[in-house]
What does this fold into?
Amino acid sequence: MSHPGTLRTEDHGAAKRELLTFRLGEEEYGIDILQVQEIRRYESVTRIANAPEFVKGVINMRGTIVPILDLRIKFRFPEVVYDDFTVVVILNVDNRVIGIVVDAVSDVIALAADEVRDAPEFGAQLDTDYLEGLASVGERMLIIVDIEALVRAPELGLVDAEFAA
Amino acid sequence: MTIDISQFVQAFLDESFEGLDLMEVELLREQALDAEQVNAIFRAAHSIKGSAGTFGFSAVSDFTHGAETLLDEVRNGKREMTPEIRGLMLEAVDRMREMLLAARDGSAHDPDRVAETSGRIEAMLTSAHGCPGTDAATPVAADSTAAQSGVTHGESRPTPAGPWEILFVPQSVLLRSGNDPLGIFAWLAELGELTVHCETDALPALGALVAEDCLLHWRLRLDGEVEEAAIREAFEWVEDQCSLIVRHLGQPPATVSEAPAASAPAAPLDAQPQTAPGGRPVAANGAPVERRADAASIRVATDKVDTLVNMVGELVITQAMINTIGHSADQLDARAVEQLRHGLTLLERNTRELQEAVLSVRMLPINFVFSRFPRVVRDLSNTLGKQVNLRIIGEETELDKGLIEKLVDPLTHIVRNAIDHGIESPERRRAAGKSEAGTLVLRAGHQGGNIIIEISDDGGGLNRERILAKARAQGMAVPENASDRDIWQLVFAPGFSTAETVTDVSGRGVGMDVVRRNIEAVNGRLDIESTEGQGTRITVRLPLTLAILDGMSVRVGEEVYILPLTAILESLQPTPEQLHTISGRGRVVRLRGDYIPLVPLHNLFNVPATHERPEDGIVVVVESAEDRAALFVDELIAQHQVVIKSLETNYRKVPGVSGATIMGDGRVAMILDVDSLTRLHGTVH
It folds into this structure.
C-alpha cells in the first residue's frame, strides 16, 4: 500500500514532505505533519495567570498538562470565535506537547522543497518570524508555519526555562 | 549464537559500585569490625575482582587482587584490622571506583595513583604480620567468627573430603546470563574425578525448543579430596539461578541450599535488605546514590512489596464483591444498595491504602545521603587538620527518592562548609575555651507535612561584620540596620564568600547560592541561624513527597486553585473592622493584634472575582518562608489529596504556581506556591 504522498514523490524525484493544512479565518496554513500528534475538539481550558494573551491556558490530555495556544490571537486575527468547528491540533515540538487552536483542519498535502517560496518581508507591520514560506496548491496559497520558531518565541518563554519569578 | 556481553557491563558496574559503597560504609565504622563485617568487605572485593576479570577490566581485577589478599589475611585472622589497613583499604576503594568510573565513561584512569596504592598494599602484604600476640591458635577474627553463628561461611568450616553427590538444577535463564554449565563441570573435573549424568526429562518436543533456555539438569558425582566450599565456589556465579544440593555420600546430614536463600560467598550484593549488625538498614548503605544520581532503578524492602501484594489482593476481593452485587439483582433493592454502599466504602479505603503503599515504594531512608558523610567528614577534617565528631540522628527518616537524589549535592556542600568555615582549628577552639574536637550534627525528622534536615556545628558561627563588609565590598545592596536574619541571607547571594583563604575545599563563593537554588527547586526552604562563637545551624525544610499534596481547593470567580494544606494557618471571614488600608492602597487584616497583608488572589492573577470586598468572601491566612499573608478568595471548596503534575514539562514555570493537578471532573487546577505568591504580591504593589 503506498501513501498518496509517496506516490507523488516518484514523479517529481525530489524528496517531498507532508503538511497538515488548516484554516485560520480565510487563510490557509500548513505545518509539518510529523509534528502533529492528534487533533481534538476545542474544550474549555484552565487559564494560566499572567500568560501572554494567545496562551489560552492548559488542558488535561490523559494525565498530561498541555498548554493551548491560539494562533488566531497570535497572528492578530480580528475575529476569534470558538464554535463547534474549532479544533485543537496537538503537536510535539522539541519534545514538548502543545496544542494550537485553529478554525478548521482541511487536508494533508505533499510538497517538494522547491515548491516553497520564501515569505516576503512586510517590515514592522507584520510579524513574519514564524512563517517558513508560501506555496501554491492549485489556486490556493498555503502559508507554511515554522512551529518551532513559534515555540522558541521569547514571549512564550518555553525554551528559556529560567523565568524570573 | 553470540552473546553481546556489553549488555551485562552496566549491571556489573552497578553491582561493583554498590560493592564499593558497602566496603566504604563498613570500613568507616567507628567500632572495631567483627568477622561478619570483615567478611562483607572481603566478599565485595572478591566479587568485583571476579567480575572485572570476566568483563575484561584486567586493570581493575589485578589491582583488586592485592586488596583482596590483604582482606583475606584479616579475615583468616592472620592480621588485625589496624587503622592503617582501614585507611589503605579506603584508598583502594577510591582507586577501584576511579578505575570503574573511567571504564564506564570510556576515559582513562590515572595509572600512577593506582600503582602507588598498589605498591603500598604490596608493602603491607610483605611486611611482618601485624599481630604477634595472636598466633594461629587464637586469631582475633576467628574468635569472633566462632562467637557469631558462622553459618553463612561454608568455606571457613572444615568439611570432610570424599565422594560428593551434586544435584544441579539451573533455572531456564541460566544461559542468558552468560553462564556455561560445561565450564563449571570443567572446573569441578579439576578438583577430582567427575561423573556427569544429564537429566533430559524437562525437554519439550523439538519444535517447541527454545535454544536459549536451559531445560536440562544434572546429577554429578565427584570423587576426591575436595571440600564442600570448593565445590560451591564452582557454582558461585550461578547460585542465584539454580537449585543446588551438595551431599556428602555415605555421611548424611546433607547441606541443602536453595537459590533465594543464598548462603555462599558471592552473595554480598543480594544479601542486602533489612538490617545489618548495627541495626542500620544495609539497603541504604549499599546503595550507590551518591555517584549515580541518575540511577533509574530502585531497591525496595521486601515487606513493602508484600504489603502491596496484600492490598491488591484485597482490592480484587472488593471488586469481586461489588461485581456480584451488580450482577445478582436485576433491580437494586434497598438491601443491595446498602451492600453496594458498603462495597464502595471498602473500595475507597483499599484505593487509598494502595495509593499510600505505592507512594511508600518511592520513599527511601535519608541514610542514602547521610551514609556518605562519615567519609566526607573524615577526609576533610584530616586535610584541614581539624577534629570533628559527626553525629547522625534520624537517619531512618524516609523521603522521596527523587528528593534524596537532589539533596546529595547541596547537603554535601553544607557539610563541607561547616567543617571548612564553621568548625575552628583545635588551637582556636582551645583558646575559645571549647573542646578541641568540634561536633557536627546531622539530624533528620518529620515536622507536620515537612521533612526537616538540620546541619549544625559548634564552630565559630557567622560573623556579622565580616559578612556586611564583604557584601559592601562586592557592591551588594545592604539594608540599614539589617536584622541578623537579613544578613545571613546574604550568604546565599551568588559569588559571596567570606573565606579568608580560598582552599580547594570551599571559599570560591560558588556554592551557597547554588545550594539554595537546588533546595528551592524541590520546593524546599533553607534557613540559617547562627550565634557568633557558638555555631551555626542550617535548616532545610522539604515537602514529604514530590508526587502528592494535601490541598484545599479555593474558588476565585470561575477559577479553582489548590492551596497546599501545610501552608494554611487558618481561614476566616473578616469583619469590616478587621480590615485597614495603608496609604490608601495596601490593605491589611488585623488578626489577634497582628496586621497581616491582604493579598486578593483575583488581582494577582487578573481574573474576575465574585466578591470585590474581602468581608463578602473568605481570607485564608497562609505562612510563607518569609512572612504571613491573608489570601482573599471567593470561597473554600473542599479538602483534597492531589497529584502534582508538572507545568514545566510542556509549558514553563509560572510565577505564583508550583504545578498543576487534575480534578475529579478532569479539569486542570493550578497549585499555588505560597512563597512565590507573596513575592509576586510584593512586585505588584
Remarks:
- Chain A is about 10% helix and 45% strand.
- Confidence is low (pLDDT under 50) at residues 1-13, 160-165 of chain A.
- The longest strand of chain A covers residues 16-24.
- Residues 4-12 of chain A form the longest helix (9 residues).
